[in-house]
Write a structure and sequence with these properties.
This protein is 31% helix and 15% strand. Strands 1, 2, 3, 4, 5, 6, 7 and 8 form an 8-stranded mixed β-sheet that branches. It is built from 9 helices and 8 strands. The protein is an alpha/beta fold. Helix 4 (112-124) packs parallel to helix 5 (143-153) and helix 5 packs across helix 6.
């Protein structure tokens, strides 16, 4: 089992439907022995989330708390089949980390071709680092095209622990992750395991992901969670 030193996809009360403060999340991550925590609040078009000025003011927040390094960014919403996002390019470029995801409150699920094209346009964006939970069957996608485009642009695909929870509303995540991971091995595309934690006790825990990786014999060198150094080429903060 791969020892993870990070969790890049988490939310605080600022996202509107999570339940801990930034300090509480950082403290929990430190207590679990992580080295790096990503705080990626939902962008403005998610109902109840923080607005643009929140992201512009992240410069006032320390990048180290409780001895753990923080990456402060956003889980932005893909808004349409053209891959438009709900933060400006200037704001995206200012963030440490950008995850782009499809959410039903923000985007009407399109056809497989439409959803795939949206992901491809997003992957072209230099500010976007990671595609979040592309396993949601409510947004059907051509996984070969998705993975190949991620390879072409040097981007990361997320395996989301919450998607694999039986209580999650995303559909067919296990089957879709299996297909995606096989293609990631073929195209040598890196993945990141994420909790998508909206509560501090869930940080850094990936019990639904590990069995999948083990069954596939997924190569450890393609899992960025193994070290901060492995992550650095793929994240805005370290490239700026």
């Amino acid at each position: 089992m791969i020892k993870s030193v990070m969790d890049l996809h988490t939310h605080t009360v600022a996202s509107g439907h999570a339940y801990n403060s930034l300090r509480e999340m950082a403290k929990a991550a430190a207590e679990k022995g992580l080295e790096l925590l990503g705080i990626t609040e939902h962008a403005p078009k998610m109902p109840g989330s923080c607005q643009t000025f929140y992201f512009r003011n992240l410069k006032v927040v320390p990048r180290t708390l409780y001895g753990i390094e923080l990456l402060l960014g956003s889980e932005v919403n893909i808004m349409d089949s053209e891959g438009n996002l709900d933060l400006s390019q200037k704001d995206l470029m200012s963030l440490d980390l950008v995850i782009a995801s499809m959410h039903t409150p923000c985007m009407r699920p399109g056809s497989k071709a439409e959803n795939t094209y949206a992901y491809q346009k997003v992957l072209e964006n230099p500010a976007v680092n990671i595609i979040g939970h592309p396993d949601d069957g409510r947004f059907p996608v051509d996984y070969r095209a998705l993975v190949k485009t991620a390879a072409d642009y040097g981007k990361v695909l997320e395996v989301n622990n919450h998607s694999l929870d039986p209580e999650c509303t995303r559909e067919n995540a296990k089957e879709n992750d299996w297909i995606m991971l096989e293609l990631c091995m073929e195209y040598k595309v890196p993945i990141v395991m994420s909790s998508d934690a909206h509560f501090d006790t869930l940080i850094g825990d990936f019990p639904n992901i590990y069995p999948l990786l083990e069954r596939l014999k997924f190569p450890e060198e393609l899992v960025l969670n193994r070290s901060v150094e492995a992550l650095k080429p793929y994240v805005n903060k370290y490239r700026s």
